[in-house]
Amino acid sequence: MNVLHTLLVIVQVLSALAMIGLVLVQHGKGADAGAAFGGTSASLFGASGGANFLSRSTAVLATVFLASTLGLAFIGYQRPQAAAPGSSVLERAAPPAPAAPAAPAAPPAGAADQASQIPGK
């Protein structure tokens, strides 16, 4: 399951980066895609221009990205088989044993004698 998760993450990242690149290459309506390269769109991508090729490629990459996202969500939702249903990590943890209160320390034997020898008292 870990190999599938890693593979889906790699596919998702690569499709996201490619989709970002394709969207940045596309121009708005009325702008020629080939004008950036010194030509017309008809001479660069054929008679239909670059809009069909780039928009279809973006749609395919968006579909791949969506499928990998759904796959990652499904894998992330799966729970380990050893865990009891409805139990969380906090419910399975053993409560800490209560600590016995510490007895107050008795003052040293000569502490009362030393207090009486302090000047000003």
Automatic annotation (TrEMBL):
Domain of life, per lineage: Bacteria
Localisation: Cell membrane
Keywords: Cell membrane, Membrane, Protein transport, Translocation, Transmembrane, Transmembrane helix, Transport
TM regions (residue ranges): 6-25, 59-77
Disordered as annotated region, ranges: 87-121
GO molecular function, one term: protein-transporting ATPase activity
InterPro entries (UniProt xref): SecG (IPR004692)
Gene Ontology annotations for the cellular component aspect, listed alphabetically: plasma membrane
Membrane topology, from the record: Multi-pass membrane protein
GO biological process, alphabetically ordered: intracellular protein transmembrane transport; protein secretion; protein transport by the Sec complex
Positions with biased composition (Pro residues): 95-107
Protein family membership: Belongs to the SecG family.
Biological role stated in the UniProt entry: Involved in protein export. Participates in an early event of protein translocation.
Protein's name according to its UniProt entry: Protein-export membrane protein SecG
Native organism: Tepidimonas alkaliphilus
